[in-house]
Design goal:
Layout: E1 3-8, H1 15-20, E2 24-26, E3 29-32, E4 35-38, H2 45-53, E5 59-61, H3 65-77, E6 81-86, H4 94-108, E7 113-118, H5 124-136, H6 142-155, E8 156-161, H7 165-170, H8 176-184, E9 187-194, E10 197-205, H9 207-221, E11 229-234, H10 238-252, E12 256-261, H11 264-270, E13 275-280
Parallel strand pairs: 1-2, 1-6, 6-7, 11-12
Antiparallel strand pairs: 3-4, 3-5, 8-9, 8-13, 9-10, 11-13
Length: 284
């Protein structure tokens, strides 16, 4: 029986990856200046960043229930097994919606098999899980592939920072006064994801100290980094992403990277210049 993988849009992988691997992706919604878009489909990450720099404040919504139901019904009708790898439930309502729709489809197709996995990951952290599962899709059993995805979800680390605290303040996650003072002092926050939710780790004056802290965290938290594929995601700051990549190559001997643009689901809250590094704290 064929296993079909569905990827949530905020896995932030390029559209051609989904096409090349015959993979279904559920885009999230973006609402800007009275217009509705589908992230990466009808609006690009670059356009979202440019609109935010011009003062726009995009709002996002989780994957369309109609799209999710359509994807589920297709798998049920073709009597295939499905796995839906979902953006963290702590950041989006997609997981709860998908559970409800799975139960709805099962009423019509009682034998429908669809495992919905709350990755508790974001951006390329989820993207790394998607890519790994796709690479094993034809060699692992259904149960083995589910176990693999759940293991990666449990052991994926996220370290990221934002370039401009004003965007955090716009979303109500920081007072405007604190953002102003932080900007004046060139404060750069180091953030992570704990149990699917964004949490602060530390803050530093300037990028050099911040990046050094990131590398130290990677050294202490990562498992056999040289054997991993490291994920780097960025919100319209590719040059910074490539600088980080070069440092990780030099320090840890890493040879494999996935570098992607952050989609609207994160950029809308963190702003242009956001940068993230994702890696595993345990490989097996």
């Amino acid at each position: 029986m064929t296993i079909q993988i569905i990827a949530d849009g905020p896995s932030d992988l390029p559209l051609d990856y989904y096409e090349e691997n015959n993979l279904t992706s559920i885009p999230h919604g973006v609402h800007i200046n009275g217009k509705d878009y589908l992230d990466r489909i009808t609006i690009t990450p670059k356009e979202v960043n440019d609109i935010m720099r011009a003062g726009g404040s995009p709002k996002t919504s989780h994957g369309s229930p109609a799209m999710i139901e359509e994807a589920f019904r297709k798998i049920a009708q073709e009597k295939q097994q499905g796995i839906y790898l979902v953006f963290s439930s702590g950041l989006s309502g997609t997981f709860a919606t998908a559970l409800m729709l799975r139960d709805l489809v099962k009423e019509e197709y009682p034998d429908f098999q669809m495992k919905i996995i709350d990755s508790k990951c974001a951006s390329v952290g989820l993207g790394l899980i998607v890519q790994s599962c796709v690479s094993k899709q034809n060699t692992y059993s259904y149960e083995e592939l589910i176990a693999h995805a759940e293991f990666m979800s449990e052991h994926m680390e996220h370290l990221f920072t934002v370039d401009n605290l004003d965007y955090i303040a716009r979303g109500g996650r920081m007072t405007r006064r604190a953002a102003f003072v932080g900007g004046m002092l060139n404060i750069k926050p180091l953030l992570t994801i704990v149990d699917g939710k964004i949490e602060p780790l530390d803050k530093f004056r300037g990028k050099n100290k911040l990046y050094e802290a990131i590398f130290q965290k990677m050294a202490s938290m990562g498992d056999q980094l040289s054997e991993q594929t490291i994920g780097i995601c960025h919100a319209d700051c590719l040059d910074e992403a490539l600088k980080i990549k070069a440092q990780i190559e030099e320090r840890f001997g890493v040879k494999q990277f996935v570098i992607t643009e952050i989609g609207a689901s994160i950029t809308a809250h963190a702003g242009p210049g956001t940068l993230g590094i994702m890696f595993m704290n345990k490989l097996s």
